[in-house]
Fold these 2 entries.
Entry 1:
Amino acid sequence: MALAEFVDATTEKKQTTEAVLELQEVSVLYSGKAAVKKVSCTIWRNRITAIIGPSGCGKSTLLRSLNRMNDFVDGVTIEGQILFAGQNLYGEAVDPVEVRRRIGMVFQKPNPFPKSIYNNISWGPSINGYSGSMDELVERSLQQAALWEEVKDRLQESALNLSGGQQQRLCIARALAMEPQVLLMDEPCSALDPISTAHIEDLMFELQSRYTMVIVTHNMQQAARVSDYTAFMEMGNLIEFGETDQIFTRPEKKRTEEYVTGRFG
Amino acid sequence: MAFLSENAQKHLANRHRKSRLFALLCAIVTWSSVFLLGVLLVRITLDGIGWLNWNFLTSFPSRFPAQAGIKSALAGTLWLIVMIAFISIPVGVSAALYLEEFSKRGRLDTLIEVNIANLSGVPSIVYGILGLAIFVRFFGLERSLISGALTMSLLIVPVIIIASREAIKTVPMSIRYAALSLGATRWQTTWSHVLPSAFPGIMTGVILALSRAIGETAPLILIGAASYVAFLPKGPMDSFTALPIQIYGWASRPQAEFSELAAAGILVLLAVLLLMNATAIFIRNKTEKRLK
Amino acid sequence: MSDFTPNTGLSFSIHKGVTRWGETAIKFWLGSCTALSLFTTAAIVVLLLVESFDFFMAVSPIDFFFGTRWVPLLKPSSYGVLPLLWGTMQITIGAALIAIPLGLASAIYLSEYASNQVRAWIKPILELLAGIPTVVYGYFALTFVTPMLRHVVPDIQVFNALSAAIVVGIMILPTIATLSDNALRAVPDSLRQAAYAIGATSYEVTTSIVVPAGLSGVMASFLLAISRAIGETMAVTLAAGQTPNLSLGMLGSIETMTAYIVQISIGDTPSGSIAYQTLFAVAALLFFITLMINVISQWILGRFREVYD
């Protein structure tokens, strides 16, 4: 690859693409108490957006409102709009099940089903009426999650026998098998060792060409390493949102600067 | 995309329908248990309420339904409650304390644990046979209150042990460490700190076990409690009858009057059980407040 | 506390070799209470074995286990236990057919659908159902269930296996519901969330993720309930009758093992006779069957704990 082309590619990457999710004054309230306050921002297609901020700032709550996982919390109400491909996720006609199969999620702690590796992947597509070759889908998903080589000879073994890092990659593969448009990751590396973390970060780079990702992390190096855009939240408010370079090198807000330079939080 | 054909859309609607139907079904099943309990209680109340009066409570059983009462059965049951409590609570709670606070978790202790779990699953009628062979025959206690109380105690001691252990387990280790670090012995720690903290839980378990004993019929029939006893027991060695035995005696007779007497007896038995459970709740609330 | 001296100086002594007699005595008492449980088991086993041995000296085990006629009290007597075993099985199978689906459905409702307030109401009600004395269920079967069944099946007898099976089913339903509810609620919430995040409906999450994950606890609850049904005495004695019977229909009078034991102990069978010893042989069989089921259920539960700890 010539140098000029490379520069072109990176600058092109910086450019905004089409919007996948548009948050318009989104507030999340637990029994009337706001955990997320009037957040507005845009999640761009095939980009990685990181949400950072101190513990309890509402970043996980915000993430979970993007695929309606907050529906399972008693007494939760959402205000504002989250547009997904132009449609409000919380509109009356919207089926949360359909939302979740298009917007996948990877959780903080690996949570494989107590089933075989193969069935962990195949369950989602099969309940959703997938009619293609399941073997191919399982293999493709595991390859995308960079797990195939490690497990191809023991697909029928219980997923609980895998190591923590492998389990988390399995959970990513499980989400990818649904071919989601967006992949939400809630501190996906917080329960993992540094080597497994590096594996997952590499994986995110590779997936970027096909998926839009939103990652919540409290690890600022991770946000700086992997993301294109960064949102900084504090006490439920979105303090600053912008390209990652800008947030980490030329933040506009004082609070952001203090946080990313480690002066508080 | 593979998932979003019109077919898949229809498929999703079907899945939702199935899901709602399933949830509804589960709810209906659960609520019908509640309904069933209502039917059972209403039915028995309607059958028995007409016979339930002061005369019924203060008369001995009789061949003539109109004169029959449950005086001796009620007295027998009250005797049994007190005697069973005196025998089973010290033994059951002591064993629980041993297993939680003193046992070294060796192989013997594991065996004892498995054994207690199995004992709690032995059919009550087998305890009846044991009581008949050991207390009535071998120790020559005859068909007396003490035989009945001992047999019932064997039956509920495993239940008390299991419930008390659960209560003792909830006492935080930090309390024990605090006491032991002051130079208390194991028993001083147990007696002054563990037992008081676990007391509400233990009492709840004990009373639930006792109410199980009060409702049990089969073991008493085996050791020979008679359904026709026209006197009040004066001591532990006297023969006796008890509420469930009396109910069984009446219920197994074909005449409608006796069947209604059985219902009236059931109402009295349920009242005794309710009283015991209310006591358990009262004790639990009161002691829990004190400890907080 | 005469030997308590304030720590004024740096004096210190360890009373090594001092035996605390009080502590030892208490420990001995506590240990004896615990050992009592072992004696109870030993007593049951020895008693049943010794008395059954006497019985099997007089009656061949082959006749007992494979004989199809149970006529212990009349001449010519016959001691084939199969009719009693079959009576117990009819009640147990009938009760299980009722209680397993309904109990599991209730457990699923409680753990997956009911709000905390609803659960706070229903659980005590289920415990009440479980706490009602079995003689009451017998009365209910005789005076309510059988007359109701007569509307549907007019030729049902006063004493019949069907109504007994129904009330035993009601009786063991709370056991299944509460224990299975506990097992299902022990399934980590992260599994449900993972399944919902894939786009599953609540039915799919429940049937393919939650129930399979809690299956061992659910199975154990089934087994415990079945063992209770087998050992159940008063309801079947009152409602199912006392006619040992190998027939298939559940509309007539039968006799279970437990009902037979009650029948013998109420009657004036002289102790020492063969008829009297049948009591112990039947009880030994009953004890052995329930013990096996309980042991299996505990084994399943033990494996369950290994997975989640």
Note: Residues 16-58 of chain C form one domain.
Entry 2:
Amino acid sequence: MPLLSLTIFLPLLGALVILLIKEDENSVNNIKKVALWTSIGVFLLSLLIWLQFDNNNGSYQFEEKFRWFNDFNFSYHIGIDGISLFMVILSTFLTPLCILASWESIKKRVKEYMIAFLFLETVMIGMFASVDILLFYIFFEAVLIPMYLIIGIWGGERRIYASFKFFLYTLLGSVLMLIAIVVIYRLTDSMSIETLQGNYFTKNIQIYLWLAFFASFAVKIPMWPFHTWLPDAHVEAPTAGSVILAGVLLKMGGYGFIRFSLGMLPEASYYFSPLIMTLSIVAVVYTSLVALAQTDIKKLIAYSSVAHMGLVTIGIFLVNSQGLEGAMIQMISHGVVSGALFLCVGVIYDRMHTRDINFYGGLVNRMPIYATVFMIFMLGSVGLPGTSGFIGEFLVIVGAFQYSSIVVIGAATGIVLSAVYMLYLYKRIIFGVMTNEKLTEILDLDNREKIILIPLAIAVIFIGIFPNIFIEPMRLPIESIISNYESANAK
Amino acid sequence: MHILFVPEVTLAILAVACLMYGLFSKNNSFNKATNFATLSLLFVSLLIFFDFSTNFALFDSFFSNTQFTKFFKILTTLGAAISLIISKNYFIDSKINKFEIPTLLLFSTLGMLIMISSKNLMIMYLAIELQSLSLYVVASIKRNSIESAESGVKYFILGALSSGILLYGFSLVYGFTGHTSFEGIANSLVEIDNLPIGLIFGLVFVLVGLAFKVSAVPFHMWTPDVYEGAPTSITAFFAIVPKLAAIALIFRFCLEPFGKFYFEWTQVIFFLSIASMFLGAIAAIAQKNLKRLLAYSSIGHVGYVLIALVSASDQGLKSASIYMFIYLVMNIAVFSIILSLKKSDAYVEKISSLSGLSKSNPVISASLAIIMLSMAGIPPFIGFFGKLYVFIAAIESQLYILAVLGVLASVISAFYYLRIIKGMYFDEPDDNQTFEFTISSESKVILSILMLLITFFILYPSLLTDVVSSISL
């Protein structure tokens, strides 16, 4: 059974069903239900893939390959290995939660919204599962369409500005990748990510190709100074849009760095790694300080995303097993934690329609359950031992010691600062005396919100306690990337 | 029996028949003349399709048919037929239902067919004039409208100027080579290593004249005004059909007689291409009128096709054929929507008046949004593959700079395509005016087929690329 294709295209099928439902007051609920059950089905399918996944096989599994173009060697080639497995599961895990989170807050154009979300899910899974580079590129760019619409139609006040900035900024980054892809094809006559892992290009060409890939992934992840689209997009997007943006779309950049920059262009990666380290350290320290100064909760979390992604890029370009595994765990953890934090913001935004930190205060008095789950995610973001954030940060720092102690100092400063701004945020929102009269009637989490947030809280702690479950499948592919990198640069 | 000339002769006879019918019928014969013209064009495209005697030359190499010309001729006749079908209602509705329109368009299409096949400077010039003169008239067919008359005059003056330049170029080429036929010119250049300066002048003049016809920057000035001023149905024809013939001609002229000296002409085309892509992208940002915007968008698209020409290779030829096919598909689709969309009894021409379309006509606005994304070259839609093929041709000929500039221009152009989507989806309707979408059943079928093609081309791209794979000059 083509399990992977089914996982990729089931959401599209759901979208097709929704397309056939005529939207009116009675059918809105049906539309939501179709979307929810489709995405839950996709999640179950992806769990099935995880269950059948063979940890001792370092290459692609669940492969499917069909000839696509007759005149070129492009094919519909998909597969999953240890690196993409959890990215796929992250996407399928967050989508049903996002749909559930939009249950009440999206009131207009529910039909289009659900179609956009299901299309987005197809594209995300497809991107992580592509083995053919052109297929990867098509999914990578197609992400822009639903996200543009989600920000632009259902976003906040400055949604139009934010949606255009998001679209054009990320498009500008990714078009250069298209040129790089065509060049790779011309030089090797191959389009398979799997066969291109190695060191097939001279260093000179690698440098140009690397820069082209860097342009797209650095914007996507985003690295300082290419991050300015992110705060705008996050702030203006609806809650669920922010969740997917932070949870999955940012990971496309990190995933691309591992697959393309490290895997295909090892010499250039070595050549450029000081640049990456510098930009990442600046990102970690600078954006943490910027986050500290924010008054908008969503903006604060957006800047914290940039800082956390800085740790990811440090981990990736350390190119040792601790660093890469740390970066992967950090990406998974950040996907869950930042998604959850945006959902938490969504909870109070739905009630009060403001994200101003000064508006809130003393919420623990009225919302004890909310305060508890928020604390779990906050601590996960800070990296408290026992939560998912700790594993990633710890591994990255351990790996960084083998590279340079300056990098360690930079990364550690960022981690300390992350504790400062998150705890400060938590203090201002949750603790203290409730002075704002409007807050006196605020209600605690309802059942729907509990169903959304509790799985995420469990995931944060689960990853923190059993990281090996997640590291084990990716060990072999990461090792092959490292050995390839080392043999390429040993000359 | 020279069977390869049959489609053109047939079209000439049918065009005259159409004219005669229009002249001698007592009632308003627009309807029947249009139907007749549409059927004639479809019949001729069938004749071209079943014309197996390709790779022929006729009348002492005045005229030749190859796979390349066959492909472009089929596109031209089909494009002309379809643009007549989608604009029929518009003609009737805006009371310019004169039988002269289909007749003139038939003659113009005849000119284009000869243009595509011509292998001689003389016949090339005559064919260009045949198609241009017919188009000057139809551009100003709405006599009582100042804009239409203005656009017709503007088109005529600039077109006549470009014809003059073209003719001067021809005379220089003839003077320095002693030949008017492509083969003769090519043969006389076999032994020369450097083009004489006069011949370079001639070549550049001819290229300038042809650049006018394809509306490449900096010879594009007529395009936005003519697109805006002419009745939309005529604009649709302008956007779709003459571009095909002119592009085919510029390819043949550059690659056949001057194929050996590609270094000389690629410099010119290189500049035209970059200038067209960027001006098309940047100038369109400021436009408020949908037709002007499409004019600049078509200028930008010409820039991309010219990338394929600069690559001067077989792959370039294939990529250009693919790109033009895709251009045709997207433009017919967008015009068939514009030609049927009314707001408060007036056809929609302003971008701002599209606001709120997605609420009242979700299917139409979704289609328009898909076409816009496709024009911007966003995968998974068909436009992406056009760009992909052009970039493959460019990279193959190691035109890295051109490819990089091309993708950068495509990002700029994405902005204004997105602005149309923004208007339909993000903006609230500003007034209580309602949209009205009236479309004839034939156009509906065409639009549906094209939308399926635009959306699902990704599933089976070989459908097109297999056809193109055998193309050569």
Note: The mean pLDDT of chain A is 91.
